[in-house]
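Students often ask why we bother encoding 3D structure as a string. The short answer is that it lets us treat folding as translation between two languages. Here is a chain of 122 residues written in the first language.
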Amino acid sequence: MGASEIPHMTYQQYRTARRLVRECCNYDCGNCLLLDNGEECVCPQSITYSLICKWFRAAVLPLDAGLYAALFPPPSVRRRRCRECGKMFASSKHNTLYCSTCAAERAKRSKRAWAKKNRADV
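And here it is in the second language, the structure alphabet:
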């Protein structure tokens, strides 16, 4: 998993993850024991919207199946980049090009153009 593939959480997902951080065996009063090299180090997973801690991803995140499924969809659901806005979205179809928001906007534009063309023909 490269740096560009690290999932980013919404605020609600972040709050859920913060509650889960306390379940980590390396969590000690807000600090991370793995990163402790003589000085206390704040647990990075508790202060970021990214899933940067590999231990958290592997050992703690699976404790909340809903959050895990939202951040790591099954392989049958592909993560794609929307051609309109550039945001990542999940799609189970191989030919989906746009996220749901952009797809709805494109459908409105298309319908508007069709109606305009048909009004002009009458």
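Translate back mentally: Residues 100-121 form the longest helix (22 residues). Keep this in mind for the problem set.
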